[in-house]
Amino acid sequence: MEGIRSSTRSRDLLRKIKEFTLSILEDLSEGLSPLIFIQSFRTYCTNLDSICSCRSNKPSGHEILTFQKESHVHRIDVLLRVLLIVQQLLQENKHASKRDIYYMHPLIFSDQSVVDRAINDICILLQCSRHNLNVVSVGNGLVMGWLRFFEAGRKFDCINSPNTAHTVPVLVEDVKDLVSAALYILVVEKESVFQRLENDKFCSKNRCIVITGRGYPDVPTRRFLRLLVDKLCLPVYCLVDCDPYGFDILATYRFGSMQMAYDAKFLRVPQIQWLGAFPSDSENYDLPKQCLLPLTIEGDTYSKDQWLPPAPS
Amino acid sequence: MDISSVQKLCIHLISSAVQRCRLSEGLCRLSVVLKSSPPIIRVSISDTGTGSCLEEFQDLKCNREGIGTEKWDGLLSIKTTSISDNKIYHYHLNLRGSVSARRLTRLPSIPKNDAKFSGTEVCLSISETIDALLKDIKHYFQKMLILKIPVSSTATLMPFICTQNDMVRNLYFNETFLKSVAAELVIERGDASGLRCENVFLPNECSPLNFSSSNVERLKSGLEEYVLKHRNSLNNKCDSCFCSREKLKISSGVASSMESHRSPGLIVEAVIAISELPESLCFRSSGNKTEVLHFKDFSPSSVSIASLNALTSIDWRSYGLTLVSAVDQVDHALIEWESLPPYLHIDMVIHCYHKQYPGKYKYQPDRHLIKKGVKLALDDLKEKHTGLLLSAHAVKICSYAPDLASSIAGIILSSNDLKFRSKCSTLLELSQSQAIGKQTVEDRIKEKIISVIETNDRKPEKIKEAAPFLFEDDRPQDLDPADLYLEEHAGGGNVFSFPD
């Protein structure tokens, strides 16, 4: 069944880290350069000419990191440093954020994205999700509406005051006793929209749950949304701007992000439905021209880069 | 063969004598006697090699601009006999005029009375100073020492140096230049009392060779001694610079053309010596620029364009070197390096010859063959000496080794699984009993990582190429398609074979 992994318990991950380390040592003791296979994943389908049933769960290829190229060696260096931290987190059952890890060797990592990539590489190597590594990100998302649950003994009683925003729980595993009287889930792109709904007491009039990832949704928000959809089996709608960023955010909820494509099947919500202005609406409803905003150059190229299908290889 | 000066003529005649000794199978002796009676010097070059077929003299061309009639009348007196002859033939050959109009005058022969020997003596009288001649001859012999031309004999050599008027000349002839060709240089001056003193030097072989040694082994040994004696400017190896043999690393490469090649039978031997000299009293004028000595057909030769091209087209960066320039200095090419450590000195010699030499053939030096020979020598050096000639790329990769080792050691030592830790110790060949500190583990891993990087760097590009390329950008850039049809093998008996 989608969304279930075979072994992501700390003990299993620690075993995999040890196996990985041993394989490096074995190669080195035979005088060989270690070969680190990193599978690559993607969230889109490159099959252009037929109706494809692929679900992008399978790796689309792999990269091999060796000692031959400097860029590879740097990547291996960062990977091993992060792996050491992850091993300690798992052994001591502690949690750390990506940012915490970055600040352990800021000079060597040079950028948060370098750490993020290493974390992704480790997830692929150990076949697990990021939270399995005890690496968490601070929840950015907000939730309100007809919902009640416990997280680590703390009660989130949204039903009592459905128009009060709560932060999305970081550790989805710890969410217990989920209860809801909602009829649907509404995902909104922007925090401003969320606040507007809050001020308007939208949830008093509508039996729903409202969630926002405040722009691009982070992992906890998407995992929490996925949990709600799986547990409550409610229809879910997404309200985004009619611009390339809006489309991309919608796609991130629905298909997963490219960066964490390896984990997309645990994070995506394929049931999500597009709510909001479609590009065709401006013609269908004869919207006056002055209501439209011109696409900025940045947005235009972004849109093309993001939405043109990649050239078949 | 065009001769443009008296010095060059003498060198050419000495060189011919050396070749006759080289072809002889017995012990040979070569004498160069310069007899001075101002303003004339009588030059006699005699050898006990195979006799001469005279063609080598008849083909000589002297142009009037190079050698004026006031310097030399053009007359060569040649006495020669081969082992099967029963007399010694005597000729006069006048080299003035065109080749076709030359007259060979046959003088009365001298009977050998059943004695079995061979040899040649060439005499000429020129108007020149001894010093002008001596400089070039000395230089020639310094270079010839490198070839260590073999002749099968067990004789040792007793070279002579003669001085006169108590004025000790440069003792440039201190050692055998030909393993068993006894060579002497006699200078007699008629202007003074004629006091003659002879100095005899016993051979001082730094690395003895046996007679089955190949040409390239001889060249290697020759260059080694050349370097140990500061480019043959000393009589003995310089003990202050080379107190330990570790300071000199030497390797050779041989490239030969296949039958299908446009000039089959061509052989290029390259020898490279790298020496580490601390700052010492010994000062070498050329700094740490590299002199690339050139030989062709067992004689010192000028630098060919093909050779210069070969030297500039080598990917030196893959050996951690950056070439600034390679300049033709007539008898050697001078290479200037960028940021070569001042204590490091590189000497190089390139010898091109035909495997059937001497014979009737014409060939041009081949750029690809020279390049191949030099690269094989470089690869051989790299193979034999850990850490030597590491490419700039590998040096960069090596700089990651401490960090990689530290992380791996961290993963091992911070694991709470004792079984895992002991397994790692076994793989790292660390004894179980001793208390293993982080530093020990780290150092051992670092050692192994560096050794892997060095091994990777040593692999010739073509072997690396054999692995399938997963990504286009991994493909080596500098592939010379012309290299593929050359048959090649490295010195020291290592034979690489490559697919055609």
Write down how many β-strands of chain A occur, each being a DSSP E stretch of 2 or more residues.
13
Overall number of domains of chain B? 3
CATH architecture of the largest domain in chain B: 2-Layer Sandwich
Largest interface: A-B, 32 and 32 residues
Number of E-type strands of chain B:
19
Secondary-structure-based class of chain B equals: alpha+beta
Q: Tell me about the largest β-sheet of chain B.
A: 9 strands, mixed
Structural class of chain A: alpha/beta
Q: How does CATH name the architecture of the largest domain in chain A? A: 3-Layer(aba) Sandwich
- Which runs of chain A of at least 5 residues are low in confidence (pLDDT < 50)? 307-313
User: Mind telling me the C-alpha Rg of chain B?
Assistant: 28 Å
The poorly predicted ranges of chain B are 151-181, 190-207, 462-500
Mass-distribution shape of chain A: globular
Number of helices of chain B: 11
GO molecular function, one term (chain B): protein-macromolecule adaptor activity
Protein name (chain B): Type 2 DNA topoisomerase 6 subunit B-like
Organism (chain B): Gossypium mustelinum
GO cellular component, one term (chain A): nuclear chromosome
Topology diagram in text:
The complex is a heterodimer of chains A (313) and B (500).
Chain A: H1 10-29, E1 36-40, E2 61-65, H2 70-92, E3 96-97, H3 98-102, H4 106-109, H5 112-126, E4 135-136, E5 142-145, E6 147-151, E7 154-157, E8 166-167, E9 175-180, E10 184-188, H6 191-199, H7 202-205, E11 208-212, H8 219-232, E12 236-239, H9 244-255, H10 264-267, E13 273-275, H11 281-284, H12 297-307
Parallel strand pairs in A: 3-4, 10-11, 10-12, 12-13
Antiparallel strand pairs in A: 1-2, 5-8, 5-11, 6-7, 6-9
Helix pairs in contact in A: 1-2, 2-5
Chain B: E1 2-3, H1 6-23, E2 28-37, E3 40-47, H2 55-58, E4 61-62, E5 75-81, E6 87-94, E7 104-111, E8 119-127, H3 130-147, E9 160-164, E10 181-189, E11 196-200, H4 215-228, E12 248-256, E13 266-276, E14 290-296, E15 299-300, H5 305-313, E16 323-328, E17 332-337, E18 344-354, H6 367-384, H7 392-398, H8 401-414, H9 418-427, H10 438-458, H11 461-466, E19 487-490
Parallel strand pairs in B: 1-4, 2-10, 9-10, 14-18
Antiparallel strand pairs in B: 2-3, 3-8, 5-6, 5-8, 6-7, 9-11, 12-13, 12-19, 13-18, 14-15, 14-17, 16-17
